[in-house]
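re: the backbone from monday

yeah here it is again, tokenized this time
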């Protein structure tokens, strides 16, 4: 009880000690959001990875990107997010410069890796549905491993420039060591365009083509020339489409703010602090959503989740019994 009271007292002092921008309830809300995000992120994405490796129905080429995306989401749950939570509790960064740089680096790896993996998923779904005759050749086992490797190579390549422009800095508004949008207008614009707008455009094109094909099949336009889309293939596509939409919705506000401020710095002072903070924590929250979407919309994932959880509970029960 004393530890809980101490934690609550520290949380209550958090943002208020920094610069008095927010009331106590905001501090507690941010902490709760982060705690829920970390818990669901770790549990959900571990379930995703285990499910793909254990269930033969899920061991498909396209799900290699799903596992890769889950790994990208897990990166932030094990290190950067707990440090952000610690900063909220203490009212500021207490872990020193090296942890700040490492935390910002992993956050960058996670978000860029996520958007590149989501792009890989969209291209995979596009080839599977719209170019099914070439799919097995394009996404053979070896090729798929190379594609995933390329995603992570491009991710690492994309994050390296941050060290040269010294853009990884602690921002007291969000208690995070993260990309400082004000360091270089040109670099910020490049980051937003290359790491967000361009991938989102590619993904949008892929899913638009798929939706057009789905509508054609549903309306039976030239049925003799149109491929058939199986129900489970449609649901797999729809699941990945929802993952993309949630990512775009969660990350769009932060990227638009960064783009606008970079293009016209004078607008930075007009953006409310609460909006900037909300956009960051909205983006952070996205890391725990994908696993939930798979469980809700994909029957194979849902069944495997249940099997894994029941097995874990049985093992725990036996251990307690012994």
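seq for it, each position gets an aa:
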């Amino acid at each position: 009880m004393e530890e809980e009271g101490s934690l609550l007292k520290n949380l209550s002092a958090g943002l208020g000690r920094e610069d008095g921008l927010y009331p106590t309830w905001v501090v507690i809300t941010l902490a709760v959001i982060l705690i829920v995000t970390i818990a669901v992120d770790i549990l959900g994405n571990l379930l995703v990875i285990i499910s793909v490796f254990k269930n033969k129905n899920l061991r498909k080429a396209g799900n290699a990107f799903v596992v890769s995306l889950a790994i990208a989401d897990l990166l932030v749950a094990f290190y950067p997010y707990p440090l952000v939570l610690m900063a909220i509790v203490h009212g500021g960064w207490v872990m020193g410069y090296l942890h700040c740089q490492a935390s910002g680096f992993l956050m960058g790896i996670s978000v860029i890796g996520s958007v590149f993996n989501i792009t890989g998923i969209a291209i995979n779904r596009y080839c599977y549905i719209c170019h099914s005759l070439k799919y097995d050749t394009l996404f053979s086992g070896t090729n798929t491993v190379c594609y995933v490797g390329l995603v992570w190579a491009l991710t690492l390549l994309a994050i390296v420039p941050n060290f040269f422009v010294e853009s990884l800095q602690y921002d007291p508004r969000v208690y995070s060591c993260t990309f400082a949008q004000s360091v270089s207008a040109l670099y910020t614009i490049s980051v937003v365009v290359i790491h967000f707008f361009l991938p989102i455009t590619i993904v949008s094109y892929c899913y638009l083509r798929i939706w057009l094909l789905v509508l054609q099949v549903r309306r039976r336009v030239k049925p003799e020339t149109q491929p058939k889309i199986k129900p489970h293939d449609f649901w797999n596509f729809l699941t990945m489409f929802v993952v993309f939409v949630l990512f775009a919705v969660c990350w769009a506000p932060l990227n638009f703010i960064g783009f606008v401020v970079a293009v016209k710095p004078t607008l930075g002072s007009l953006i409310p602090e609460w909006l900037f903070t909300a956009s960051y924590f909205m983006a952070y929250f996205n890391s725990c959503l994908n696993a939930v979407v798979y469980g809700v919309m994909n029957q194979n994932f849902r069944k495997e989740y249940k099997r894994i959880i029941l097995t874990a509970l049985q093992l725990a029960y036996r251990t307690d019994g012994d």
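The mean pLDDT is 85. The first strand starts at residue 168 and ends at 171.
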